[in-house]
């Protein structure tokens, strides 16, 4: 099967399986989404959604967060992974947003990745979800599925190399949708351990299917 045909079939089937695919993080502004995505690194969206309501009540705007200390933020995020580092990154991010961008979360890749604690994946999520652009954030689910299914060659061993390959073959106007399809499929069907191959809509074209 040719690569573009594989991508077309994957797109059709995953869209049918997840027609309303979207982020499962709860947010109401770019500021809230950025905080949530930063907290979600190596942590579940479910856990992040449990801690952010109280966090946003305490620090409703980026300026409120910028005026805080990591020690004041820590109690609100102590149940997520790496709470000490994330508390420091959140405050440092907020301060730079206020100092450099007048309190407005930037909408450009270079500006976003210049912020403390904001890597390329987080920036891509912001571009795709907060600002309505087309981007392909590569998290652990997207990375795993892309290699397992066979969307990318095995030599793609870094998130950036996987991103470049996916961007090359998924339709440019569906990149953000494809990102959500892969995340949801990885979260609920093609799990890291004991993937549910018998229930997978891609089991007949997947490179690693056990069905």
Task: Give me the CATH architecture of the largest domain, please.
Answer: Orthogonal Bundle
What structural category arises from helix and sheet content?
A: mainly alpha
- H/I helix tally: 11
Note the overall shape: elongated
| Largest sheet entry | none
What can you tell me about this protein's structure?
With 211 residues, the protein is mostly helical. It folds into 2 domains: 3-21 and 136-199, Helix-hairpin-Helix base-excision DNA repair enzymes (C-terminal) (Endonuclease Iii, domain 2), CATH 1.10.1670.10; 30-130, Endonuclease III, domain 1 (Orthogonal Bundle). 58% of the residues lie in helices and 0% in strands. It has 11 helices and no strands. The protein has helices at 3-17, 30-40, 45-58, 62-66, 70-77, 83-101, 109-113, 120-130, 140-149, 159-169, 175-188. α1 packs across α11, α2 (30-40) packs antiparallel against α8 (120-130) and α9 (140-149) crosses α11. The two termini are 19 Å apart. The relative contact order is 0.13.
Short description:
The protein has 211 residues and is mostly helical.
Chain-wise SSE layout:
Blueprint: H1 3-17, H2 30-40, H3 45-58, H4 62-66, H5 70-77, H6 83-101, H7 109-113, H8 120-130, H9 140-149, H10 159-169, H11 175-188
Helix pairs in contact: 1-11, 2-3, 2-8, 5-6, 9-11
Spell out the key features of this protein.
Endonuclease III, domain 1, 0% strand, mainly alpha, 2 domains, Endonuclease Iii, domain 2
